[in-house]
Design brief:
The chain is α+β, with helices and mostly antiparallel strands. The chain has a single domain, classed as 60s Ribosomal Protein L30, Chain: A, CATH 3.30.1330. The protein has 2 helices and 6 strands, in the order βββαβαββ. Strand 4, helix 2 and strand 5 form a beta-alpha-beta unit. The model has no long low-confidence stretch (mean pLDDT 96).
Length: 150
């Protein structure tokens, strides 16, 4: 008998709980895939209005904090960073960079996590610059897919 698809809701405090899931586990021929909805940065400076980039940090800081959240979510679902097979990074242009996305800042934080002694497996990756994200202060949103056998 095939395993069932498992759907994991967002935390009860999330305003988006009724709109989309945190993640979905899909079994396919002995492999289980975990697909995560877009992860966004946490507020790191509550003294700044949350519609400002300064509330979340620059692209590198936002990426680093999102990857910490990714790791925690994966572990909660029985996966690890080494199980990540796909990353999609959506970056907004940074005013401090003349409206260009800080792809280098994204990559610096990314390389602290992937391709390391602790996490040697690197996923396929896409980085794109987008016109905007849901919150004006967000510079980064990351989607991920993990997979493991057995």
């Amino acid at each position: 008998m095939a395993k069932a698809i498992e759907r994991y809701e967002l935390d009860a405090s999330s305003p988006y709980r009724t709109q989309f899931l945190e993640s979905v586990r899909v079994p396919v021929d002995g492999t289980e895939f975990l697909m995560l909805s877009g992860l966004t940065p946490p507020v790191i400076d509550r003294s700044v209005p949350d519609d400002r980039v300064q509330a979340y940090g620059d692209t590198e800081t936002q990426t680093r904090n999102i990857l910490k959240s990714l790791k925690a979510t994966l572990e909660r679902r029985g996966y690890a960073l080494n199980d990540v097979v796909r990353i999609q990074g959506f970056l907004v242009g940074d005013a401090r960079m003349g409206g260009r996305a800080d792809f280098q800042g994204f990559s610096r934080a990314y390389m602290e996590v992937f391709g390391t002694a602790e996490t040697p497996n690197i996923p396929v990756r896409t980085r794109v610059q987008v016109a905007g994200l849901v919150e004006p202060g967000w510079l980064v949103e990351i989607e991920a897919t993990a997979a493991k056998t057995g």
